[in-house]
Amino acid sequence: MTAQNSRQPVSEPTRAFAPGRVNLIGEHTDYNDGFVLPFALGLGCTATVVLAGEGWSATSAQQDDEVATTTCAPSDVPGWATYVLGPLWLLADRGVDVPPLRIHVDSNVPLGAGLSSSAALVCSVITALDEALSLGLSADESLALSRAVENDVVGAPTGGMDQLVSLRAVEGHALFCDMRSLETSPVPFDLEAAGLALLVIDTRAPHRHVDGEYAERRAGCEEAARVLGVPALRDVTADDVEAAVEGLDDDRLQRYVRHVVTENDRVLATVDLLSEGDVAGIGPLLTASHAPTRDDFAISVPEVDAAVEALLEAGALGARMTGGGFGGCVIGLLPTAGVEPAVDIVTRRFRDGGWQEPTGFLVTPGPGAHVVPA
Ligand code: ADP
Ligand code: MG
Fold first, then answer.
1. Residue having the nearest C-alpha atom to atom 2 of ligand 1
2. Distances (CA, A) of 259 to 220, 244, 247, 278
3. pLDDT level of residue 157 (50, 70, 90 thresholds)
């Protein structure tokens, strides 16, 4: 990262897009130094930066208020604006001379639905700033900055997967991420060639990331790793899992370990199948991932379980909750011809349950963050 931006302020807008994501498999494994397999949505956030004015301001097409500050440093702004101005504050704190500018964001990722509207927002802003200010950020620097915005500025204890995939996704591929080394490798994920579709059901049951529940799971996993004497639960293998579980007195921690260790194993098995072009073969792994998120990790809610059950009844090859949990979205892997009947069955189930009508849409793997014409 250069300490000083080398270009004179210009008034033309600079624009960048960054995607939201679906996590195909690997839930709550990222902060355990484990494995995840997300892919980028075609949906995302577009950030537009204009170097102008006297101060630093943020607007969002998804928010009514305009936020303007006279210093480029942490200040008391509404929650959403900390995601937008946070990158500026961190850059300034690291010695970058951030000129007065305006940032406008516009996203079509549903907010708070577990599809990572937050990483799409932060990564679009960072990509646009990098270009507008000629910062020359390396891939590692952009990643570290985007993670620091959510973890340190916003205060959400998320594990880093969302930013990694938003920045590095490759079109047509899922992104295998080793969350210890932060190395990524694209894995072909050609749904169309397999005659399949991936249906996302947004249950619209609210999900709360910054909430205590997510932090509690994270702290529980860290506590389990400490008791087991390993740096992270990544270091417990599937072969060792029962011995590890026996080494813990606390039933809650035993369940967390069982989920994380077996989930890492399922991610690796999914990568193997997709690498062989066997998209249909991953269905049972997706379904197998859902049960421990519900029973061991206890991060599901009735709407999510009902959507998974309805998708499986409708002929899905696999279905699971996706995202941090406590509401949000479910994915179902379906034969293309089975999508419409599946949506009907899920909708009927929600009506019977007296819940809000869910929304359903198909997704395919899109590209990661990039500058777009303004
Ligand atoms: P998720 O990332 O799964 O959508 P989070 O709770 O992590 O859920 O992030 C949602 C929050 O991110 C919103 O409440 C809002 O503060 C912020 N956010 C995301 N996209 C936008 C946007 N386009 N405009 C303003 N704020 C946004
Ligand atoms: Mg988020």
1. 116
2. 12, 12, 16, 25
3. confident
